[in-house]
Every structure is written in structure tokens, then in C-alpha cells.
């Protein structure tokens, strides 16, 4: 095994995370394909909806191996033959004969707050799984690394299971039950949360694995190395970007409806959630959601900008299901005419600023009406009802377009000859050249950012990591994506400052158009030096590629930071 | 006035070209807008078709001022009051009372070859206009610059007239008639050609202003500084890119037809040109045609590539008119279904290689069927019948897509589940990374280039030019364009190696989508040093931008050379 140190400047300490050696694919093996296919398959077919509604709905994941459990399992398998025997003969697993994660009468009941308080050795390291609470401190204490704290500590292990489906092995759940110490409070089975001292009293709880950038409003990203583990990003560790407190909507009450206004007000519609679901055929789209400011921290190294200090994790890939916006707009009289070529569609959310103005933006009507544009009014994410953090009960999904336009808690749609006049449309999410400063900018000179440019990132290893080579080679993995449905046609990696470029293997299949999802990549490259700088860049189906550096891309708002991703790693020779 | 020296390494000598001071716009004046609007207007409305057909059809241009004539006119206006009087009283223009350019009985008759032999002072400088041949050597001799030879020398002045419409003034044609020496051979009225020692006996004649890259097959580009003069590039100086000799087609004979084959052969259509024109509504598109290898010469400075040594002029913007391909495909049973999402459309030209295989390529069917894709089967270019060099009688226009797909002399269209298997689809017009060499390339790993990336160029001044400043400022002009219909949202110019970026003024209006035309730009920048390096880069509506240099874009085929355009100019302080 080897361990990594994940340093997050926004956390007071650092989270030390153990990865099992078994998690690493052999160089050029079919491992990655298997994982990819397996994950895609499970995402496509194995989601199933649970009854009820709320904010803690998540993936029902087919895989059994979590990092936590895989760690446990492989350690025992290697070191403790008596435990290893559990796998060989199921009948011998007497101590854990019960259904894993089920409520066990007689054990103490803990709240998710209780679990969240146990994230290091001083308090004990707790995790939860379904109704079960587990103290895995004994395992940590005998762990060869000694200094490891599992990323899932203080929360549920479930979101990680889709990432590590490769570790599916019988017996792991049974093993875990040996560390069972109690039950979760009823109603909290789905997620154990960190105690985040949440400033917005009614905001939902979040998974502690998210790297928090601001708490008020809540903004947090996915650790980069987790992004590359699965084609679909699990909902609970999907990045969150809010401008205001999270609305708490009861879609069954009469207070919620979606108002749709055509150019002629008489064509308006009012739909509740059920009406939307039944009146319009559902459509499913797998698409990347990315913040306009993703990777801003790299741009800030050139010169400070204004915006959240995003790393590379303000992005995720999810399956979205809902009604086609085109169908809804046809119902309010919008047509496929040339006349409306330059019209717009405005979206209002239920989140409001201190003046009660809603978060609102617009997109070109042509995108909304494009039969191949795949814009949907989504009520599901990753096979389950939207969570509150992702816009429950309704969010507009605009594949290929920046996340700022994907309005959450959607309550109003309006077709207009004019672009939305809101702050977010007119004075934010725009880009200027590096010589344009705040004191002299004329925002009207730049169009609102809609489609996004091509980007790519090394997710694993991370910048500054000490890495082990395998057969003298450095294994690199990451994601690449472009806006407008343009597929990734090539990812180039260099470990010699651009003198030589290696073509990375694309893990996920790619279409040249309507490619809304991302494409993960991997490369195994020989490195000769103890310190290596890695560069990655992608080429999309329009053969646009990334600029070399952030310097000439710099803009005062720190958006569209899409230069080559450059990281430095050092070889751990021990 | 100031003069420039245009050096073309492919010409034996150099062409010295004079620009009138009056041609230069005052800094930040409304001049450029006026020119732009005027030119667009004339392109939109003032084309009218002539009867007959053939290979020498061209723009009928509303403007009167050619560089030649403007030069004449302004010189006389300034220096020779007696001539200036012509303008004031038309009745006094006795010597030129005839219709300018008409056949004059009694004057000698010259062939266009004769005219082409008169391009410098040793032979005399001749030009033609309609049926007229003119020896303008006397004007050159009294010209203050002394060393100027007009670009139109040896050929027709007509293609330049749309470029210099701003010089429209009464009396110019009358003045020109004073230099009348003869008539052109009948049938050659439309164009006087250079004597190009044409290797392909039946190839059409071309305008001598084209910068020839190869003669067999004929490949030639437009001088860069002419490109920026007008929104629409005149047909006769539009770049030409051939793979083989030019077919000579008589569309009225039974030998020519367009065969259209759906997925089911029984749905085939055979159309002659008249049937195509009458059965399908005509559609007009203004779109850039650009060679995949435009700007290759800049990439060759990094390391040699294989391909034509294009400068920045293998691009042009034209008005195309024809039948929508979508309409024709609907007629052979192609539908808007998801089933054909990954199908292709193949186009065959009448030009063939030595094995008689036609030039053939394919594009994705989704582009062909996109109601907003504007793919047309064009029979007109710039308001007149296609010329032979541009595919007479029929060429497919695929806006936003590389020129290699715009098959000329189109004779067959076929819908297929498979991409075209031709050399040009499978083994050419593909791009690889800089480390991929001919001896180890696997062409199947790269998709055929379709949509093109964003690019921009400084057209005026050109690299190496000695320039005059105006009020200490350098006037820069050029074009910017992106594929896929993505409009140009910003052009940045730097004269200090990227430390400071200036936003250029966009001359032509821009849409964010379906922007198939280019956008010309201009900037007036203060320069302090005698030697200045100018950088330009553009940003398109997907906020993709150009990479900084050609080094990392380098590919063995020398395609997609879209790095910053960088030129060096020196200030002429005399």
C-alpha cells in the first residue's frame, strides 16, 4: 500500500487518505476498461428510485467495495488468515450473519452528528453504512501505514462504492459488521454528515469528503483524484455551487409550480411537478456540469482574481432525467422559425438575493429549441430524485454550457426577445482580456459565457504528490471535456515541458458531437528524474486545443482557466 | 502616398504595390464602418447574374474605384487642375465621351496574353477593363513614388473594385479612357490573365494577383492584405486549392448529372442542374472557405511539414447560393431519426486521380441534416454562376467545416453508415501531436478534420513590412474566424510580446451562432520602438482561443496552424 497526503488549505488540518495498492491498475492493463465499462453499465441500468423524497437521496450502487472496506479486506486477507477464512466459507462467518447495515436491536443509536465527530484517532474513527455505525479505529491502529485516516471517516462510505467497484469481493460487508458499534438515528440512514457548523440554518447536510470553499453560501468541490475513479460522479460528492441559502421546496404543496411564459403571455403554462412528469416524455442525458470558475486557483498564481478558489474539482459528470425544454416551449407556442433566431430563454430559481431578486439568467433560444441540444428540465440526477443541493425539485440542464446557466430550484421560464438583465447575466460570468481591470471594464462589451472551451486535468497524482513508479513508469489519470457537445479526440501528455508528447489512452468512449459527458484518460509514462513536471492538454472535435499557460488567459473574474494543466510530482524512492 | 514591397518567394521577382494614402482610414474614424456596410450592402443586393455560362464569370461590382484608378484620379486631382476639371463638368470630357470599356473600332486588338506580358516599366504597364486595354505607363512615370507597379498590372482591374469601393468618384472611368490603347480579343472581356505557362492544358486561366503555390495541380492564395479590404472576397482572387486538373463540365449536356443515393438504393435521384435549381428552393449563405493547411508556412518555421507552403491567404469569404442538402436528402428518404445519428454523407467530385478514383470525402450526416447547418449544393458564388476553379457547375458548401470537404464539380452524393474510405478521408486532413512522425503514424487513431478551430491573422501590414505611423500609432487590420458557426467575440492584439493586450475593433457584425462568415478587425496602437513584434489572437463564442505558438501545434501534415499570428514590422521614419 501507499498513502497520500491531501492538503486542503481551507481545512484546518489535512486529511490523510490511504489508497490500497490493489486500487492501482497494472500499467496498460484492461483494468481501466473494466472499471469504466462496469461503472457505465451500473449507471445506465442499475439505478432505481426509492420511494419518499428529501435531500439525502443517493445512488444505489451495485458495487460492494468501498475504499474503507477494501482497505480492511485486503489487509485482513494478507495478514490475518483466520479472518481471510471468512471468504472461503460463508458458513463460518458467524459473527456477522445478520444483514449488513441493518438496524440491530440492543446497540446504541447515534445521530449523524455523532458520527461526524469521529474522524481521527483521538475521537476514534467512525463510519456509517445504511443503518449501521462502525468504529474502525482498531483496523487503523494495526494498519501498516499507521498514519492513515480514511476519507470516509465521519460519514457514510456509500458514495465511494461506485468509485471502487473493482474491489467487489464477497465477505467485505461481513467483515465490516465485526466493527459494528451501533445504529444511526432513524431517518439518517442515507448519509452521515460532517458537523459543518452550517451558517444557513436550513441548508442541507453535506458529505464531509467535499472540499469546502465557502460555507455561506455553500460552495464545495470534489477532491480531484476521486473524479477520475468513475465515469459518473456520485451525487453526494458532486461539487456544489450556491449563491444563496438553499430553498426548501415541497413540490406537493400548492406553493410550488413551474410557470412557463411564451412570447405571448396568453400562451403561459403553470405546471406542478407531477404534471411536468406526466405531460412530457422523460429524456435522459449524461452531461458534465462545470463551474465557469473551475481551476481558478491556477489562474490566481499569475495574479489574484475575484472568485472562489476552485481547484480542479468544480466539475462532475452525471445522468440527468427530465422533460425536454423544447417540448415545453412548443406547448407555449414557440416555433422553429427564423424569426426567433436571436431570442432568449430566461430561467428563474427560487434562490433569492437580499433584495428578493431571484437568481436568473438566460440562454439563446436556439439552444433551447435545438432537437439535438438535449436541454431538459431535470427532476432526477443519477437515477434518483434531485437533492436539495442540486436543485430539488427541478433544475434546467443545459449540456455543453457553463454551470452558471443550469438554474436550480427552477420556478419560472420565459421566452424573450431580450437577454436576461440580471447581475449574473450582465455583470458576471463574462471574460475579458488580461489588460482589462475592474476600474475600467465595460461589461457590455463581452457576451455572457455560454458554451465552454476545451479543458483537461491530471487528477491522479495531484500537484506536489510523492509518487511510486511502477516499472519505472508514472501512471497518470484525469479527465478532459469540451463544451458545445464537442467530443475529445486526443489527450496529449508531456513529462519534459512539451518537448515530447504522448497520446493518452481514452478510458471512456467518445462521440464527435452531442458528447456532453467527459472523457477520462490515462497514461503510463517513463520518467527519469526525481522531480517531474507533467503537462496535459486535450483536443476537441473542432480541433480546438488548450492554450499553453494561464498568463494570457488571465481575466479579472478568474473564469475559463483552461490552460494546460501542469503539476509537479516527485518520485518516492523508498 | 506610401508604398509597400510584396515579396513572394515563389515569384521570380517582386511585385511592388502602391497604396494611395486616401485608401488608409483615419485612426478610429467611421471610415471602416462605412466601408464595411457599403461592401456588405453591395454584396447582398447588387449582384446580378449575367447570361451565358463559362469559366470567367465574376462579380459585377457597384463600386467604381480601383486602386489603379483611384491612384490615377487622386494624383490628377492634386496635381493637374486641367484634368481635375473633368469632374466638375462632365460635358468637358470630350476625349472620353465613349462608354468606358466598350469596344473601340480602329484600335488594335490584344489577347489577354499580350496584356499579361506588360507588367513592368520595361514592357510598359497595361491593364484591362471590360473590352478595353490601357497602357498606364505614363501615369506611373509621373508618379511621385516612382517605383510603383500596380498590383493589377498585366490583368483586369475589375476584381479590385469591390475592395476599394470607398474611392467611388465620378470621372475615373473617363480619365482611364485617356490611356486607352486597344481592345481585348472578343471572349476575353471578363478577365485578362497572366501568362502562367499553364501545365494542365485545359485548366482555366487565373488572375495574376493570385500567389501561386503549385501549378500542377493549381494551388494559389490571395495576398493577405487584399483579404481584409472587403467583407466578401472577389471570386477571381479567391484562393484555389486543387488536387488534379480542373474538369470542364457542360451541365446542359446529358453527360452531367448529380446522383443522390439514400441508404436504400431504390431512393436514388438523378438530377441535372436545371432540375436541382427548380425543384429545391434556393438558399443563400455567406461563409468562409478555408484550407486545412492555411498558415502552414508559419508551422514550417518550427520544423518542415508535408504540404503546400500556404501563407495566410488560403481563406476567403463568399456568398454561396444553392439548394439545401437537407431538402435533397429528405427527398431520398433520409429522416431526422436518432437511428442515423452516426451515419455519413459522401461526396464525389468529377476530378480524378491517375487511377480514375474521384476526389471523395464524407461528413457526418447530422451536419448535412441540421436545419441550422446551412449545407447547400451551390451553383452560385458571389452572385454569379460558379467558376470552373470553384467547382462549376456544382459544389457542396459546408459552412464552418474545413475546405477539404467542400467537394467541387460535385456529381454524386451517397448516404452511408460508413465514413468515406478514400485517401483524403482516411489518410489526409488529419492531425496528430508533434511527436507523431510519418514512420510510425496510425491514421486510424485520428478523426478526419471537420469543424475548424478559431484563428486570426494580421493582414495589413505584412510580416517584415516597413510601416509609416500615423500620430505615433500603428494601424493593424486582419481577419478572425472560427469553425462550427461560432462567432468571434474578441480579438486581442499585443505589441509588447503579450504583456499588454488591446481589444481590437470588430469591423463586421457578429452572431454567436451560425456565424459562418469571418470578422475583420482593426486596431490603432501606439508603438515606441523602431522594431515591433505584433501578436494577434481571437476568442470565439465558445471562448476557445488560439494557442500561443506553433511549436506544440506542429503536426507532420502541417494542418490547423492556428497559433497566435506573429509578425515583425519596422517603422519607416522617412
Oligomer: homodimer
- The average pLDDT value of chain A, as a whole number, equals 80
Shape of chain A: globular
Largest interface: A-B, 53 and 53 residues
Bin the helical content of chain A: 10-25%
Count of DSSP H/I helices of chain A: 12
- Tell me the total number of β-strands of chain A: 29
| Strand residue percentage of chain A | 25-35%
Q: End-to-end span of chain A in angstroms?
A: 12 Å
Spatially, the strands of the biggest sheet of chain A line up as 3-7-6-5-4
Largest sheet of chain A: 5 strands, mixed
3D structure, described in words:
The structure is a homodimer of 574-residue chains. The N terminus of chain A is likely disordered. The radius of gyration of chain A is 24 Å and the shape is globular. The first copy, chain A, contains twelve helices and 29 strands. The first copy, chain A, is 15% helix and 26% strand. In chain A, helix 2 crosses helix 3. With 574 residues, the first copy, chain A, is an alpha+beta fold. A five-stranded mixed β-sheet of chain A has the order 3-7-6-5-4. A five-stranded mixed β-sheet of chain A has the order 12-11-20-15-16. In chain A, strands 13, 14, 17, 18 and 19 form a five-stranded antiparallel β-sheet that branches. The longest helix of chain A has 15 residues.
